[in-house]
Structures are given as structure tokens and as C-alpha cells.
Specification:
Blueprint: H1 2-9, H2 13-24, H3 26-42, H4 45-73, H5 75-95, H6 100-112, H7 117-128, H8 131-144, H9 146-162, H10 165-184, H11 187-191, H12 208-235, H13 241-260, H14 269-284, H15 290-301, H16 304-318, H17 321-353, H18 355-375
């Protein structure tokens, strides 16, 4: 733990983590708030799943595009513009009476304009710490972001039940604006300039390491999205238990990230961490009792933050600095497509077979996320004892010979 305190004392690290967590706090609230809101409006989890899927697809499309734009226009202009459009879209979804199709369209726009905070901060980190601190910082960041998933669902559920689902959505919009403004005014955001990539859009996906990270991230987030829908369906939108169970799920991730943050990252690291998630989700589906679900999801959560930390480390060590933002954008795209598919499949499964089926869907996604890195371990770099900083960008130097 002392190394984490040392990291937080490094100039710029604590405020970067705090600002980006605040700006991304709506991610822990919006899915559950919209799930409760839309299910109450249309009496259908499938309808809610479709709207959340549309939002996630919009984010998925935007991920690499807005990340790449930061290399052309700068971080601040891109984040400010997207934040304005996204906030307006979220508020409209909460306040304007719309049919399901209308909510899907506006949700798609909200996702398309979601500020690229995560790719921005992942790109800044190598510039504020030395190479030995980078891997622990990725782990600390992956663990700290679980605060979003610990408090976000609890706050969203509490506000939705005690006040209204509209109030929960508007509160999330407030965090988006407040955190986004805090992030863009940080001096580190102004000092770090992402070099313009010389590659065409999408070429970075040809690197097996980036593709592996994207696919496994897809599976992991699809599993989490399916669990979220399943837990809400178990307890119903009138109970706060769903928020508490999902919060405990995130506590497990926080514990796992801090406990395994310094574990060596060998070729089996990703498969091993995903196996923990798979076992926990498989056990969770056995009995839909509050305490059983809490215990099983606590176990499953232990593998989540460590898995994300490995994904970030693999990408950072495998691409040039000018390609890091786009690479993280593609990983985000994979995760968001996973969220869309996980939410949609879980919603349909719940409507046709009950809440337990959504948790089985989640366990299936996690199992695939375990098998894929096990089979593709030759593309998983061995980072034990290695510098995980991005590969420096180099240019040809002309030499005059007299």
C-alpha cells in the first residue's frame, strides 16, 4: 500500500485521478438510472436494454474517432464540445416524453458525444510518472474507478426510489459537467500534447496485443452489463437491494485491484484473472438470494480491476505514444459494444426466462473472456520486469556527409 501512497504524492497524479473519476461518475449511475426509468415507463426490461444498447453503440463508434481527434485538435476542445452535446442529450432523455425509438436515437447521440476522458487520462499518465510507477498506476486507476461502480449504483438507486428516476439522471448529468470542467482545467491536460498519428484509422488494431485486449475487454464488460440487468430484475426497480449488491460487486473489484496490483503480468495473467470472474458469476446464478448474490459477486469482482490493469499494461507496452489514445479508444469501443450486447441479451433473457438467465448470460461472456486469452497467450506480452511505457515516436534524421 505504501507504493500507492507514493504514487498519489507524485505531482498531478491525485488530481488527475480525482477529476477523471468525477467526470466518469455518471457511467456508474446512468445505466441503472435509465434501466429503472425506462422499465417504469414501458414496463419492459427489453425496451430499457435496447435504449442502453443504442447509447453504448454510439459510444463505441465515437471511441477511436474522438480519441484520434484529440491528436489533431487537442484534448480540451474535443472534451468541451462532446461534454456539451452529451449533457444536452441526457437531459432531453430525462425530461422530454419520447417513444422507445426516440429514446434510442437520443441515447445514440448521447453515446456518440460521450467525452473521451478515459483515453485522455491513460495517455497523460506516462508523462506524469516514471516507467517503474506506470504499471502500479494503471492498477491503482483501475481500482479507484471502482468507486464509480460502488457508489454510482447505490446513489442512482437511492435517488430513483426516494426522489425519482428523472432526478437520478439529472444528478448524473451534473457530475458529467462538474467533473469534465475540473478535468479540462488541470495543467497536465494542457501540457501533454498527443502527437498526430501517421497511421490510418484502425491500423493499430492489426497489432495482436491491441486486438486481444479489445476482445477480452468486450467479454468482460458484456458480463458486467448482463449482471447489472439481472440483479435489477431479481429485486425489482422498487428495491434498493440491487444497488447494494452491485456496489458489493464493485467493492470486490476494488479489493482485487489493490491486492493484485503488483502481481507479475505473465502470459497467463489475463486468463487467470478472468477465471476468477467466471467462477464468481457461475456461482452467483445458483441462488438468487441477497446474501448469496453479494458473496458470489464479491468473489467475481476480485478479478475485474486486475483484468483491466492487465489490458491497459498490454496496450501501453505495445504501441507508440501517438497511437495510445486511439488504441485505448478501440478498447473502449470493444467494451461498449460488449455493454450494448450484454444489456440487450440480458434484457431479452429476463423477459423470456427470468432474472437467473441474465446471470447465466454474464457467466458465459466471462468464460469466453477466459478461454480467448488462454488460447491467444502467444500474443500476450510477458511484462514481468519490463518497462510498460509506450514506445517513443521517432522520426528520420537527415545527416549531411561532407
Amino acid at each position: 500500500m505504501s507504493s500507492y501512497w507514493t504514487l498519489l504524492k507524485t505531482p498531478g497524479v491525485a488530481r488527475l485521478i480525482g477529476a477523471q473519476l468525477t467526470a466518469r461518475f455518471p457511467f456508474g449511475m446512468l445505466s441503472l438510472a435509465f434501466l429503472i426509468h425506462i422499465e417504469a415507463l414501458f414496463d419492459s426490461y427489453a425496451a430499457a436494454g435496447l435504449v442502453l444498447a443504442a447509447m453504448s453503440i454510439g459510444q463505441a463508434i465515437a471511441g477511436p474517432l474522438t480519441s484520434r481527434l484529440m491528436g489533431r485538435l487537442g484534448m480540451r476542445p474535443v472534451i468541451i464540445a462532446t461534454m456539451a452535446v452529451c449533457t444536452a442529450s441526457i437531459v432531453a432523455m430525462a425530461l422530454v416524453p419520447l417513444p422507445i425509438v426516440g429514446l434510442m436515437i437520443v441515447g445514440f447521440v448521447a453515446g456518440l458525444s460521450m467525452p473521451p476522458i478515459q483515453p485522455a487520462v491513460r495517455t497523460i499518465y506516462p508523462k506524469v510518472v516514471n516507467s517503474r510507477q506506470l504499471a502500479p498506476l494503471f492498477s491503482l486507476d483501475a481500482s479507484a474507478q471502482e468507486i464509480i461502480w460502488v457508489l454510482g449504483p447505490v446513489i442512482a438507486t437511492f435517488v430513483a426510489i426516494q426522489v425519482s428516476s428523472i432526478a437520478g439522471i439529472l444528478l448524473a448529468a451534473f457530475f458529467l459537467v462538474a467533473g469534465g470542467i475540473w478535468f479540462v482545467v488541470l495543467p497536465e491536460v494542457g501540457r501533454v500534447r498527443i502527437p498526430r498519428s501517421r497511421r490510418k484509422l484502425g491500423v493499430v488494431l492489426k497489432k495482436p496485443e491491441v486486438l486481444l485486449s479489445t476482445v477480452v475487454g468486450f467479454m468482460l464488460v458484456a458480463a458486467c452489463a448482463a449482471v447489472e440487468a439481472g440483479v435489477v430484475a431479481v429485486f425489482g426497480h422498487g428495491s434498493a437491494n440491487a444497488g447494494w449488491v452491485l456496489g458489493i460487486f464493485a467493492v470486490g473489484s476494488l479489493i482485487g485491484g489493490l491486492a493484485l496490483g503488483h502481481a507479475p503480468i505473465g502470459p497467463w495473467a489475463l486468463a487467470g484473472r478472468m477465471l476468477i470472474v467466471t467462477i464468481g458469476l457461475a456461482v452467483a446464478a445458483i441462488w438468487l438470494n441477497f446474501w448469496w448474490l453479494s458473496g458470489a459477486l464479491l468473489l467475481a469482482g476480485i478479478g475485474i480491476a486486475p483484468s483491466f490493469a492487465v489490458l491497459f499494461g498490454i496496450v501501453s507496452a505495445s504501441v507508440k505514444f501517438s497511437d495510445t489514445a486511439e488504441a485505448y479508444g478501440w478498447i473502449g469501443t470493444g467494451q461498449l459494444i460488449g455493454a450494448a450486447l450484454g444489456s440487450a441479451l440480458a434484457g431479452f433473457a429476463i423477459d423470456h426466462s427470468g432474472a437467473a438467465s441474465a446471470i447465466y448470460v454474464a457467466a458465459g461472456f466471462a468464460a469466453l473472456g477466459t478461454i480467448i486469452p488462454a488460447l491467444g497467450r502467444r500474443w500476450h506480452p510477458d511484462l514481468r520486469g519490463r518497462d510498460v511505457s509506450p514506445i517513443p515516436d521517432t522520426e528520420p534524421i537527415s545527416i549531411q556527409v561532407s
